[in-house]
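TICKET: design request
STATUS: open
ATTACHED STRUCTURE:
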């Protein structure tokens, strides 16, 4: 699966901490291998992936909401 990170997400990652862009790349790579990674959210078709800040240097803990299906990702929902 191809995982695209929109520019505004990359910009936000930089603002959160020096280690967040790297953590985002790692999570994107993991999502490419396992698109169903994460916990179901309250929104249909959306999974939440929690990133533990202790694992990455200069990175706070944060939550990434990701589409569970390629069609939802393409439609922007």
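STATUS: resolved
RESOLUTION: sequence designed for all positions
ATTACHED SEQUENCE:
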């Amino acid at each position: 699966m191809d995982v695209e990170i929109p520019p505004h997400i990359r910009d936000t990652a930089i603002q959160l901490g020096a280690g967040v862009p790297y953590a985002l790349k790692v999570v994107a790579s993991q999502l490419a291998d396992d698109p169903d990674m994460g916990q179901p959210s309250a929104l249909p078709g959306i999974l939440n992936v929690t990133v533990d800040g202790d694992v990455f240097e200069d990175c706070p803990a944060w939550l990434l909401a990701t589409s569970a299906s390629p069609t939802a990702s393409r439609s922007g929902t």
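CLOSING REMARK: DSSP finds three helices and three strands in the chain. The longest helix spans residues 20-33.
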